[in-house]
C-alpha cells in the first residue's frame, strides 16, 4: 500500500479505536439523552402538540436531534483528541512522523465525521423505538450529514488547537454549539416565530443544517436545501483550509 | 559525497528574552555516536525539537541527511527516531499498539508494523508487557518503552534526549548495550545526557553547548587532554614547602597528605620533565600517579559562568 495511505489510515484507525473502545463515554450518552428527548418531547409533550408540517411532532424533532448529536460528537471528537494529545504531548508521535499536514488534518476530521455519523445512526435507531423514521430524500440526507459532520470535525480541530485547558472544550460545546442548535429550529418550526425572530434565526447556521436534514428525512423544509448545501459545503472547504494552515504553521502544536 | 546525518548552520531560535539557539553551527557525520552536552538551558532540547519539527526556527538551516527539516520535513522525519526526555506516550492503548501506530505513521503496513513492534519490545526487554498500558509500567520500563518507540521505525538517526535519566545502574548499562548495537549496525546516534560518564564511554565525538551556541566539538579524549591533570609524586623526603618547578604547563604545586600534587596541562607529557627537575633539585621520587582530568571537569570549565551546576554532578 502507498505509504501516504498507510499513514492516513493508521491515524484514522487509531482515532476510531479510541472512541469505539469507550462506548460508555462516546455512544451511550447520546443514546440515553435522545431516549429522554423522545420520551419527554415526543411522547409526553408531543402527543398534545399534534402534527407539524404534516408529520408527528416526534418525526418533526427527530432530524434536529440527529443534527444535534452529529455535530456535538464530531466536534467533541476532534477537539478532544487533539487537545488531549497536546495536553499529554503524545500528539508528538504524529507530529514527528513523516505524515503530511494534509494527511493529519484529513485523518482527524474523517474519524470525527465518522463518529458523528455513527451517533446519527444511533439516534435514528433510538427514534425507531418511538416512531417510524421516514427517509424522503436519501441523497440529501446523506449529503447533509456528511457535510455537517465534516464541517464540525474541522471546527473541532480548530477548537482542539486553540484550547489551552479542558474548560475551553466545555465552553465551546455547551455554551456555543448547544444554544445555537437549540435555537436552530430543532424543536419548533420557523413559521411559529414572529417575523423579527424568524429573520434573526436565519442568521443561525444551525437552522440550515436542521432544515437540510429534515428535508432529507421528512421531505419538508423552510429553506432551499440546495442553497443550504452549497453554503455549508463552501464553509466546510474554508474550515478545512484553515485547519491545514494551522497545522502547517504549527499553531498550538510547535513552538 | 555523503551528506552528514545532521548539519545545522546559523540556527537561531528565541523565546521572548531567551536566545535558545544562537547561530548554532554543528555537523554530525553519518554513523557517528555524537554526544551533546551542556548545562540546563543550553539549547540542547530546542535543537533536537527543531530537527523533529516541534520547534520552528527563527533563521538558519537544519538538515537531516541532506533534507531540510522544514522544506523537506517528510523525508527528514522519516529518517529520525526520537526518544524524548519527557514521557509523551499515548495512554489510551496497550504499548504494542502504540508502537504499531508509530510504525504506521511512518508508512509501514499493519502486518510489518506488528512485527516491528514485537521486535522493538523484545529488543528492549519488555515483550511480556506488550498488552499493558504505559501508565502501568515501572519507571525503568517506561524508559525502555520510549526507546522501543524510537526504534520501531528503524531510523537512520536515533535521537536520545537524556535516555538514562533516573534509571538504575543495571538498566543504564542495558540501554547502553542496545544503543551501542544500533550504532554498530550503522545508525547515527545523537545523545544528550547529564551523565558525563555516559558521554565519555559511548560517544565518538562530543559537542559542548552553552547559551545556544556550540562551545567546542572534539572526541572525549581530546577534550580531556585539554583539561588539567594532577600528578601526585611521593618523595623519599618530603620538603617542608612545595618546591618551585620551572616546567612549562604547570599551573599549581602544593603539598598534600598524599604527596606533592602538581597540576599541569597534559600530565603524561609533563611528568618526565617534572621528575627530572625534582631530581635536579636533589629530591628522590619514589612513586608517581597521574590523575587525568575528567570530561566533567573539562565540561564545567568550558561552561563555567554564574549559573548553578547542580545537575552536572556525576
Automatic annotation (TrEMBL), chain A:
**Residue ranges constituting the ABC transmembrane type-2 domain according to the UniProt record:** 21-250
- Subcellular location, in the record's words? Membrane
Highest taxon of the source? Archaea
Kindly name one Pfam family recorded for this protein.
ABC2_membrane
Q: One cellular component GO annotation, for this chain's record?
A: ATP-binding cassette (ABC) transporter complex
Query: Major place of localization?
Result: membrane
Topology versus the membrane, per the UniProt entry?
A: Multi-pass membrane protein
Q: Which GO terms describe its molecular function?
A: ABC-type transporter activity
Cross-referenced InterPro entries, in alphabetical order? ABC-2_transport_permease, ABC2_TM, ABC2_TM_bact-type, ABC_2_transport
Matches recorded under PROSITE patterns: ABC_TM2 (PS51012)
Q: Give UniProt keywords alphabetically.
A: Membrane, Transmembrane, Transmembrane helix
What transmembrane ranges does the database entry give? 27-46, 52-71, 105-133, 139-163, 175-197, 229-247
PANTHER family in the record: INNER MEMBRANE TRANSPORT PERMEASE YADH, INNER MEMBRANE TRANSPORT PERMEASE YADH-RELATED
What protein name is recorded for this chain?
ABC transporter
Q: What is the organism of origin for this protein?
A: Haloarcula vallismortis ATCC 29715
Automatic annotation (TrEMBL), chain B:
Under InterPro entries, the record lists:
AAA+_ATPase, ABC_transporter-like_ATP-bd, ABC_transporter-like_CS, ABC_transporter_ATP-binding, DrrA1/2-like_C, P-loop_NTPase
On the tree of life, the source organism's domain of life is Archaea
SMART domains on file: AAA
Annotated GO MF terms: ATP binding; ATP hydrolysis activity
Q: What keywords tag this UniProt record? A: ATP-binding, Nucleotide-binding, Transport
> Locate the ABC transporter domain: which residues?
6-236
Q: Which SUPFAM superfamilies match?
A: P-loop containing nucleoside triphosphate hydrolases
Please state what the protein is called. Answer: ABC transporter ATP-binding protein
**Organism, per UniProt?**
Haloarcula vallismortis ATCC 29715
Amino acid at each position: 500500500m502507498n505509504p501516504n495511505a498507510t499513514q492516513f489510515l493508521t491515524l484514522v484507525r487509531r482515532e476510531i479505536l479510541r472512541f469505539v473502545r469507550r462506548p460508555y463515554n462516546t455512544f451511550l450518552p447520546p443514546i440515553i439523552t435522545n431516549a429522554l428527548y423522545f420520551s419527554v418531547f415526543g411522547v409526553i409533550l408531543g402527543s398534545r402538540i399534534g402534527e407539524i408540517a404534516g408529520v408527528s411532532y416526534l418525526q418533526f424533532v427527530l432530524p434536529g436531534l440527529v443534527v444535534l448529536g452529529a455535530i456535538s460528537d464530531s466536534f467533541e471528537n476532534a477537539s478532544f483528541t487533539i487537545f488531549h494529545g497536546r495536553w499529554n504531548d503524545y500528539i508528538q508521535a504524529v507530529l514527528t512522523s513523516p505524515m503530511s499536514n494534509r494527511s493529519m488534518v484529513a485523518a482527524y476530521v474523517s474519524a470525527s465525521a465518522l463518529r458523528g455519523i455513527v451517533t446519527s445512526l444511533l439516534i435514528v435507531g433510538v427514534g425507531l423505538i418511538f416512531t417510524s423514521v421516514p427517509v424522503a430524500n436519501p441523497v440529501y440526507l446523506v449529503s447533509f450529514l456528511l457535510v455537517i459532520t465534516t464541517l464540525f470535525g474541522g471546527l473541532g480541530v480548530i477548537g482542539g488547537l486553540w484550547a489551552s485547558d479542558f474548560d475551553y472544550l466545555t465552553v465551546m460545546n455547551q455554551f456555543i454549539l448547544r444554544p445555537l442548535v437549540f435555537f436552530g429550529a430543532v424543536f419548533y418550526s420557523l413559521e411559529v416565530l414572529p417575523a423579527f425572530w424568524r429573520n434573526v434565526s436565519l442568521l443561525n447556521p444551525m437552522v440550515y443544517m436542521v432544515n437540510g436534514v429534515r428535508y432529507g428525512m421528512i421531505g419538508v423544509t423552510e429553506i432551499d436545501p440546495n442553497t443550504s448545501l452549497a453554503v455549508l459545503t463552501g464553509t466546510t472547504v474554508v474550515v478545512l483550509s484553515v485547519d491545514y494552515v494551522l497545522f502547517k504553521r504549527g499553531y498550538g502544536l510547535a513552538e | 559525497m555523503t551528506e552528514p546525518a545532521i548539519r545545522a548552520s546559523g540556527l537561531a531560535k528565541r523565546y521572548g528574552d531567551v536566545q535558545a539557539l544562537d547561530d548554532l553551527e554543528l555537523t554530525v557525520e553519518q554513523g557517528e555516536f555524537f554526544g551533546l552536552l551542556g548545562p540546563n538551558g543550553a539549547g540542547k532540547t530546542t535543537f533536537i525539537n527543531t530537527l523533529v519539527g516541534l520547534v520552528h526556527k527563527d533563521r538558519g538551516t537544519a538538515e537531516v541527511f541532506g533534507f531540510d527539516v522544514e522544506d523537506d520535513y517528510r523525508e527528514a522525519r522519516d529518517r529520525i527516531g526520537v526518544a524524548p526526555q519527557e514521557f509523551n506516550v499515548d495512554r489510551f492503548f496497550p504499548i504494542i499498539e502504540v508502537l504499531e501506530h508509530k510504525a504506521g505513521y511512518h508508512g509501514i503496513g499493519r502486518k510489518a508494523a506488528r512485527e516491528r513492534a514485537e521486535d522493538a519490545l523484545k529488543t528492549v526487554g519488555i515483550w511480556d508487557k506488550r498488552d499493558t498500558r504505559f501508565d502501568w509500567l515501572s519507571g525503568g520500563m517506561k524508559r525502555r518503552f520510549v526507546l522501543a518507540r524510537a526504534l520501531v521505525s528503524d531510523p537512520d538517526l536515533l535521537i536520545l534526549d537524556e535516555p538514562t535519566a533516573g534509571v538504575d545502574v543495571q538498566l543504564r548499562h542495558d540501554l547502553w548495550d542496545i544503543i551501542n548495537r544500533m550504532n554498530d549496525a550503522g545508525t547515527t546516534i545523537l545523545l544528550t545526557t547529564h551523565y558525563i560518564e555516559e558521554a565519555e564511554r559511548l560517544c565518538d565525538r562530543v559537542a559542548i553547548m552553552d547559551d545556544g551556541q556550540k562551545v567546542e566539538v572534539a572526541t572525549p579524549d581530546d577534550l580531556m587532554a585539554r583539561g588539567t591533570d594532577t600528578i601526585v609524586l611521593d618523595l623519599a623526603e618530603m620538603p617542608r614547602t612545595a618546591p618551585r618547578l620551572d616546567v612549562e604547563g604547570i599551573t599549581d604545586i602544593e603539598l598534600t597528605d598524599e604527596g606533592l600534587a602538581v597540576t599541569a596541562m597534559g600530565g603524561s607529557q609533563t611528568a618526565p620533565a617534572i621528575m627530572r627537575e625534582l631530581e635536579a633539585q636533589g629530591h628522590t621520587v619514589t612513586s608517581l600517579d597521574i590523575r587525568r582530568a575528567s570530561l566533567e571537569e573539562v565540561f564545567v570549565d568550558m561552561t563555567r559562568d554564574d549559573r548553578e551546576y547542580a545537575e552536572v554532578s556525576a
